[in-house]
């Protein structure tokens, strides 16, 4: 009889790494560890049940009005409460906040989730964390200090840029991945509605933490589902893309 059911989260008894059970082979448990694309066999007796990995969401200001309550926090907290998992939901206003949060990471999240506004200046994508959308508050992905911050604290992780238009142009995102050594990035290719992003993000987390898909597969399956439903006139349109460094 199998010791763990498919979809269970496990960890080695003497380590902190976490993975999700994907079946059995040759008397061993097949585990897809966080960050891995495929499951690998592990000695069943050396595993124990654990909780899903703690999600990490970094949210910029979504409105210029300081009294605004516009946020995805309640939605995602309710989802993780139902899942029996944990989420770290942190507000960020400037690139220095990325370093402050990054330095506090103890165990790997499933991916780095950044929710904010985004756009382009020419062919340069930028993020906006601050409430005021001024030129000086633009966080360009090719800025050397921004690249250094992402590389130091998020190297090796997948990252979801939940921000309009960041994925519109492929070349700058690939260059960003190469410079930061971030594993993969998913980014919206057009302007998106809150309703689209909320449904999409829930499906990504469900795909990774319940269905056991790796990051790119979870993103693609979530995008397919949202595209099929069609929200606010977005039926049939591609709105997110996964990028990998060359």
Secondary structural class: alpha/beta
From the alpha carbons, calculate the radius of gyration and give it in angstroms.
Answer: 18 Å
Low-confidence stretches: none
Helix content class: 25-40%
Subunit organisation of the chains: single chain
How many helices does DSSP assign? 6
Can you walk through the features of this model?
- Helix content is 29%, strand content 26%.
- The chain contains 6 helices and 14 strands.
- The strands form 3 sheets. It has a 6-stranded mixed sheet, with helices on both faces. It has a 5-stranded antiparallel sheet with strand order 4-3-2-1-5, with no helix packed on it.
- Helix 2 runs parallel beside helix 3 (144-154) and helix 5 (194-209) crosses helix 6 (215-229).
- The longest helix has 16 residues, at 194-209.
- It is globular.
Strand and helix map with partners:
Layout: E1 9-12, E2 19-25, E3 28-33, E4 40-42, E5 47-49, E6 55-59, H1 73-83, E7 87-91, H2 95-102, E8 112-115, E9 117-121, E10 124-128, E11 138-140, H3 144-154, E12 158-162, H4 170-180, E13 184-188, H5 194-209, H6 215-229, E14 240-244
Parallel strand pairs: 6-7, 6-8, 8-12, 12-13
Antiparallel strand pairs: 1-2, 1-5, 2-3, 3-4, 9-10, 10-11, 13-14
Notable traits:
alpha/beta, 14 strands, 26% strand, five-stranded antiparallel beta sheet, single chain, 246 residues
């Amino acid at each position: 009889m199998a010791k763990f059911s498919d979809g269970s989260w496990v960890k080695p008894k003497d380590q902190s790494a976490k993975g999700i059970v994907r079946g059995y082979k040759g008397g061993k448990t097949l585990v897809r560890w966080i960050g891995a694309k495929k499951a690998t066999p592990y000695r069943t007796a050396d595993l124990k049940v654990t909780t899903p990995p703690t999600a990490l969401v970094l949210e910029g200001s979504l409105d210029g009005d300081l009294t605004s309550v516009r946020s995805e926090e309640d939605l995602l907290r309710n989802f993780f409460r139902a899942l029996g998992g944990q989420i770290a939901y942190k507000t960020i206003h400037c690139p220095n906040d990325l370093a402050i949060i990054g330095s506090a990471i103890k165990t790997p999240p499933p991916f780095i989730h950044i929710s904010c506004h985004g756009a382009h200046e020419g062919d340069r994508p930028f993020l906006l964390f601050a409430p005021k959308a001024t030129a000086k508050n633009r966080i360009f992905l090719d800025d050397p200090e921004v690249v250094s911050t992402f590389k130091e604290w998020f190297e090796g992780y997948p990252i979801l840029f939940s921000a309009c238009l960041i994925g519109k142009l492929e070349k700058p995102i690939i260059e960003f991945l190469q410079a930061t050594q971030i594993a993969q990035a998913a980014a919206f290719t057009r302007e998106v509605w809150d309703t689209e992003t909320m449904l999409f993000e829930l499906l990504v987390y469900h795909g990774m933490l319940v269905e056991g898909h790796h990051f790119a597969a979870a993103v693609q399956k979530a995008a397919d589902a949202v595209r099929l439903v069609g929200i606010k006139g977005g039926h049939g349109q591609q709105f997110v893309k996964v990028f990998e460094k060359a």
